[in-house]
Amino acid sequence: MLDLTKSFKDILNLNLPLAIHKSQRPYVWDTDKVNRLIEDLEDFKKRCDKKSFNSLNYYMSTIVLFKNTEGKNQLEIIDGQQRITTLLLLDYFANGAQSILKSNPESVIFEYSSNISAQNIQKVKLFLKQDDVFNRLLSIKDIINKRLIFTVVEVETEDEAFTYFDTQNNRGKKPSIDVVLKAVHLRGIIKDEELQKECAEKWESIERFAFHGINIPGESDGFLYPFIKCFLWRSRTWKFNKASFSNDNKIENTFSRRLSSSDNNIIGFYPQNNIFNNQELQIIDGSLFYTPNPINISNLNKVENLPFQLRQPLKKGLTFFLYLEKYALIYKRLFTENENEYSEEINLFKTFYKKIYNSHSEYMKQYYMLCIMMYFDKFNEVNLLHFAYALDYLVGAERISNYYIFDVKYKNINNNYNVLDAIQMAYSPKEVIDFIVNNKEIETKKIGAINKVITTYLYDTKHYYEGGIKKQVPYRITETATDNENEITKIDLIKELNQLVEKRKSWLLNKINT
């Protein structure tokens, strides 16, 4: 391992061209972050000028390079591509024809396969083109050209690169958890560069979900990391009445540190039932006979149909990438707008979800969606709509009885009712539905306070089950009687809403028993 201090320009004049390793996430710096870097360099220049420190360098931390001499013959950035990409853009605008990208383009082979990178780079370029920003770049041109330095760690093998990467991570230098997971699992793919490339592309395709309007309610950090945090991590750890809040360390433990390495890129499946599941044996001439259902082998070629389970043991490498892709595709199937590609049962569920959960608490949506994902994973589409009704009976009971909904609410609800474990342990959809419907505590929930969200929820629910004209939320709630048809007293509204609450179970039973 070679450990040197080099200037920014020197890094781009090494013996081999600089490229981005396949483990790296897209370029994600926005204009605010670029602007902060410019401000830091301006402040550095100002302080140096004040004290005549004209040769003092600005330290840009460490970059890790893997010397890939097998075929490609290039230096690949394992850690540092966000900073290097940004500096190349600053250099391009500050130095024009003398910039690295103009004067020495063969020194850089940066290939961005993700639309995320392209869009963010374009936004930064437009920002740097602005006259005031451009003039600021000119003022720090000398800093960019001569006084930016890095510690450059150059390694001969990918294993050595990732070992260094992990060591730095454990010492407190924290790359984002999605970068860590991607790097760990790419390294877990054994001696198959083409497979590594395919898995990196799978990862990036899931990252792009956010650009197609597929998001996690209440989360603004793209799609992939919130999906891992709110769905995959919770589905695996919210059990035995011990639900807890996540953090990067817990997520890394679950999906990296506690996983063993795979041998020869073998994928492990753990079917929860054997071949006799839900089948009948016949006695013919005194002997037992079993006729298995036919298996459509072509279905196994679709990642979505691979027989993973949300809570099954995982290993590093290919297994994790396929596991992630399968459940991201299931999320897309269940919670996106497109109805043409899916079955009638899923489309009916989507209609219900869209009508009832459109304006609800983001935490309420997250928990509802998590339970739907767990159910679908166990029973697929069988009685999905009936389960959705029953789940709403439970989840909605908490909505109507609480003026505010905080994130701790549904963590505590799962510890109380333990729906995820009930789904996991059930043999049939009916068991899960009965588990919810027969819970007497749900029937005790009443309107404690009123607000627009609670009122809208109950009006939407009534309209879904009973039809007719949907009632509008009163314009104003008063303390005293009023003749205005757009107003209602608080007492009358609470009475009306509690009457609807009392109908919730009968609405549910009428639907699931017909």
TrEMBL record:
InterPro entries: DUF7834, GmrSD_N. The lineage of its organism: Bacteria, Pseudomonadati, Bacteroidota, Flavobacteriia, Flavobacteriales. Residues 10-177 form the GmrSD restriction endonucleases N-terminal domain. Pfam families: DUF7834, GmrSD_N. Residues 196-445 form the DUF7834 domain. This is Uncharacterized protein. PANTHER family: DUF262 DOMAIN-CONTAINING PROTEIN, SLL5132 PROTEIN. It comes from the Bacteria. It comes from Flavobacterium terrigena.
